[in-house]
Amino acid sequence: MSRKAFVGLMAVALASALFAGCGAQSREAHGAQLFKTCAPCHGPHGQGDLTLRTPAIAGLPDWYLTAELTKFQHDIRGAHPDDMEGHRMRPMARTLYQKGDLEAVVGYVSKLKPVWVPPVMAGGDVAAGQKRYMTVCIACHGADGHGGQALGAPPIGGQADWYLEAQLKKFKTGMRGAHPDDKSGAMMRAMSSTLPDTFAMRDVVAYVKTLAH
């Protein structure tokens, strides 16, 4: 290769790298801008809000955020007439209609510092919850509660206890996970049906809150 050709090749490579860097910065800025519509409910740091019944989302995996936002956009989640929180989230997810919007906000949220939401619910037998967790939850969410993409299971250790219990109830009643296209939701619905009542759910949640985030 001639010196002139080599210099030309290096110039193209440098320009491509600079363009890619600018593109990444642009996506990050776009994600930050889009997140401003999420912050009033989920908090400026993605920490969630009990009064608004919104979960912590900061640092959740990009694959999980993408999957759930897509479900909201296509009425796979949040369409049940009794799911008040879902009714608020569906139209918000649908504002991400421009090309690259969903990817940008997911990229931004997934890079936020993960939060650990302190427990607010009283009661719950940790020992009993551990036994149930090892039978019902561990196959998907893992011994450490970190979850895994292969089974569509999100990390749950740092999540709010009230939210975890609320979702177990939604899965058990079919408010969530009943749509035929919600494969991961169907698995959760089946698992939640093994928990006979709220007390059993609270035991499991009490144990989950002992897991490292």
Provide key terms for this protein.
mainly alpha, globular, 213 residues, Cytochrome Bc1 Complex, Chain D, domain 2
Secondary-structure blueprint of this entry?
Elements: H1 3-35, H2 39-42, H3 62-73, H4 84-94, H5 101-110, H6 126-136, H7 138-141, H8 161-173, H9 183-192, H10 198-208
Short account of what is shown:
By secondary structure, the chain is an all-alpha fold. The chain has helices spanning 3-35, 39-42, 62-73, 84-94, 101-110, 126-136, 138-141, 161-173, 183-192, 198-208.
Describe the model.
The protein has ten helices and no strands. With 213 residues, the chain is mainly α. It folds into two domains: 3-110, Cytochrome c-like domain (Cytochrome Bc1 Complex, Chain D, domain 2); 126-208, Cytochrome Bc1 Complex, Chain D, domain 2 (Orthogonal Bundle), CATH 1.10.760.10. Helix 6 packs across helix 10.
Rg: 21 Å
* Multimerization state: single chain
CATH homologous superfamily heading of the largest domain: Cytochrome c-like domain
Number of strands: 0
CATH architecture of the largest domain: Orthogonal Bundle
Whole-number count of domains:
2
Shape: globular
Average pLDDT across residues? 90
Fraction in helix: 55-70%
**CATH fold-level topology of the largest domain:** Cytochrome Bc1 Complex, Chain D, domain 2
Order of helices and strands: HHHHHHHHHH
Low-confidence stretches: 4-22
The major β-sheet equals: none
The assigned structural class equals mainly alpha
Amino- and carboxy-terminal Cα gap: 53 Å
CATH class annotation of the largest domain = Mainly Alpha
Strand content: under 5%
Number of helices: 10
